[in-house]
Amino acid sequence: MTALVAFALTLTACGGPSNNANSGLKGADNAIGQADINPQDAAKVKDGGEFRWPVDQLPDNWNYNQLDGTNADGRRMIDTLMPNLFKQKPDSTIEVNKDFLDEAKLASSDPQVLEYKINSKAKWSDGTALSWQDFEAMWKSLNGTDKAYEVAGTTGYEDIEKVEKGATDQDVKVTFKKKFAEWEGGLFSPLYPKAMSSSAEEFNKGWADAPKITAGPFKIGTIDRTAKLVTVVRDTNWWGDKPKLEKFTFRQVDRPALADALANGQIDFFDIGSSVDNFTRAKSMQGVTIRQAITPDYSHITFNGADSSILKDAKLRVALMRGIDTKVITKALLGQMLKGDAQVTGNHFFLLGSAGYKDNSAVAAFDKEAAKKQLDELGWKLEGETRKKDGKELVVRYVIPTPNPVSDQIAKLVQSQLKEIGAKVDIQAVPSTDFFKQFVNVGNFDMTGFRWLASATPISDSKGIYTLDPASTNQNYGRIGSDEVNKLLEQANGELDNAKRLELANEADKKIWELGAQLPLYQLPGAVAVKSNVANFGAVAYANRPYDYIHMGFTE
């Protein structure tokens, strides 16, 4: 599943200059590659310390695979505690995570059979060893056959025929009934214990307040919803390299307060995102460095195509998209931060600089006159400043989180642009802690905006976003899709030939543009403001699943 982020998320660091105070950031069209993390050998990273990590909200559910669990901040906390079977590297390649697996291989391609060998040292916090039964239970809960399980997505799991024990309990054999190409990465990651899938009630609600069983370098210290913080501390039962840090504190910090919190030593970094104010502040901070790497993170607008929404007509959605100038929005948000021109994103699957990227946005490209003409043809006639059809005004409810200056700025730009074509935008600002659970996840909006954090497996990651399943929302919050898109995504996810898979995904992308499902705005520059004495962390590029929580820390 793809994680969600609402639009732009010790002692004060001693020494260290601020970062090139007059320089701008690179654009997102640079090639994917190197992270910018102040790499340091373990001997140069001090033992101990607390790293303070700002978040927008605490997890709505510690089960990442449950519909409410897909928030990106929650995933970052979960990854300190739970097994990720693979690790994404900065250049978007994937490797086996040896802390949990000795080996993972494609044993057969027809039928497709995977074989996993679990690290014999890997234990759950209740003392039981990780086993094939955890894999089996996870597959059964996520394959979509039991609708009582409120899953965020079934991708990959629905293609599995059976999960079996191999030579030992730590040998897992997974046989597919349909081929699944991007199995390295998201499948069975994060892994959960079989007890969590023992019933739909346990899966849906059992981990809503706290994780019950863990298996990672850290364990829960405290969950304090009143103080809006979570701490994780070293787990002495961890079998891998000892973490450098003693403790992480994940604390909810409102977006407008991030720069002050870093300057005052209350947090150790913040994601600059698309906030020029935070970029400007960070440049002037002593003991803070701005790090940057191309990151799979982009902002977009989601449209609602459900029958309850005024935007249920695809042609109306596309007409409105044609009235939104994404170049103006991108320049307004990023222009003052970048060395070169800000570039819009024209693809729902592939980001600028990646091998599969093609701009497929022509059908919904900005053209104010074309937008007006299309609205006229659809029967939305201009009466005064606002269009009407059958006596009903064209009023679109745009839901945004607050406090969030970036969301606010984007929404007001969209409001101004759509007013010029006769559409009225009613901006509804809701508390950021309620934004996903009470609005986005349940389709309580006409338009809304947030960031998608993609991964090194973008096609399978996106299947639950763009597939329309009558029985499950998955992450298709706008309930927009077609049999054609479903079929193309099925084909792409089952295509083992890389070039053909990219081609199929681009065909699906063209159809998604025609449906007016989502309007990508811009890819984030991937800039992070971080204390200068922080080692092995910063702008990690694609190496965010999981972050390297074990080796990050502070220099002496």
Automatic annotation (TrEMBL):
Originating organism: Lentzea miocenica
Superkingdom of source: Bacteria
Domain Solute-binding protein family as annotated: residue spans: 107-458
SUPFAM superfamilies, per database record: Periplasmic binding protein-like II
Protein name (Swiss-Prot/TrEMBL): ABC transporter family substrate-binding protein
A Pfam family recorded for this sequence: SBP_bac_5
Matching PANTHER family: MONOACYL PHOSPHATIDYLINOSITOL TETRAMANNOSIDE-BINDING PROTEIN LPQW-RELATED, PERIPLASMIC BINDING COMPONENT OF ABC TRANSPORTER
